[in-house]
Amino acid sequence: MTTADLPTEETASIFDADELRAWLRLAHAKGLRPLALRTLLGAFGGPLEVLSESFASLAETVDARAAEAVLAPPGDIEGVPFEHYIEAALAWASDAGNHVLTLADAAYPQALLTMPDPPPLLYAKGRLDLLQTRAVAIVGSRHATPQGLEDARRFARVLSDAGLAVVSGPALGIDASAHRGALEGATGTVSVIGTGADLVYPAAHHTLAHEIARDGALLSEWPLGTPARSANFPQRNRLIAGLSGGVLIVEAAMRSGSLITARLANEMGRDVFAIPGSIHAPLSQGCHRLIKQGAKLVETPEDVLEEFGFSPATARAAAAKRARPRPASASWASATLHDAPISDDASRVLAALGHAPSTLEILATRTDLDSAVLQGALLELELSGRVAALAGGRYTAVERS
What we know:
Residues 339-393 form the DprA winged helix domain. It holds the Pfam family WHD_DprA. The strands form 2 sheets. The protein has a 9-stranded mixed β-sheet with strand order 1-2-6-5-4-3-7-8-9, sandwiched between helices. A 3-stranded antiparallel β-sheet has the order 10-12-11. The chain has helices at 17-27, 34-44, 47-52, 55-61, 64-71, 82-94, 146-161, 174-184, 206-215, 232-243, 257-267, 282-292, 301-307, 312-320, 330-338, 344-353, 360-367, 371-383, and strands at 98-102, 121-126, 135-139, 165-168, 189-192, 217-220, 246-249, 271-274, 296-297, 358-359, 387-390, 394-397. Helix 10 packs across helix 11. The protein is 46% helix and 12% strand. Among the domains are: 128-323, Rossmann fold, CATH 3.40.50.450; 330-397, Winged helix-like DNA-binding domain superfamily/Winged helix DNA-binding domain (Arc Repressor Mutant, subunit A, Orthogonal Bundle), CATH 1.10.10. By secondary structure, the chain is α/β, with parallel strands linked by helices. Strand 3, helix 7 (146-161) and strand 4 (165-168) form a beta-alpha-beta unit.
């Protein structure tokens, strides 16, 4: 597919009311699984044709339970009477940048069609071209370390500069950092959300969500008005995996939702990448487990690019783009401070930190500095962006690209 062939807002399908009604009725019919609906559409054509079939014909094609779900009167959708929901969906889709995509649309993400049970209907906000762009998912812990946040942002920025869209969820931590890095890059980002496309969750990401809707894309399979429910997120994770050619786990504990995304990606034949960390760090344990199970250990963004078929020279050229001027932000301002000279005591503390978080007691033992000098050196390192304070009175070195 060439750039000229990529779907745009102008080429997205425009529904008539009857067609949209039929798609919404089937997509949100209780008890009708996406795989069964895809089978029916393959057998009979569009949604209007499926709804016109007899119970016997439908049951013969799928099963009696699916046939009953198709022919049942449409119920409320998220507490809204069906006819009122149709009106609300039409009004939402009429706003600039909003799209309702179905399996019949050219704008529907082609990567999802390789799944056995792609959602029959998607709600999208923003750039439709990103839904057809080669993509890598970057996911990880909500409670990430400063180093993990920086790694997610840096990897996402380089991969975006190289031409890959970055896919993630809207969660705090690694996901949000990946989106910000991708927005700083040349290609952009796709946020797959577990709520209705008209809601922002978490609320703290209201500004980020608007930036993604403007410069990237937001995608949801859930009806408008759907609130955050824990049961929705594993299903959301399968879309993150499905949209991507590979999934990179930056930081993850042993019981992390990111590991679900990695498992789903592996089941779909996607690559799984993981960044290793300290053996003492809880948020490295999930990554180390994945590596033991066959995930590809990566240390640089170029490791991922090479797995996506970029030659080493191309990968290096993409990495070189990191040096280009960027919009001013707190992150880039601290990067400038990071290059400023530091005192001998601060250098001593930085060397003592190594690559694993350390407490004041450990640093005092390693450096032989008294408490006042040690804390002064740590403050100097924090202000220069070289060290970050963690929960539990620990400190960690922060690497910068």
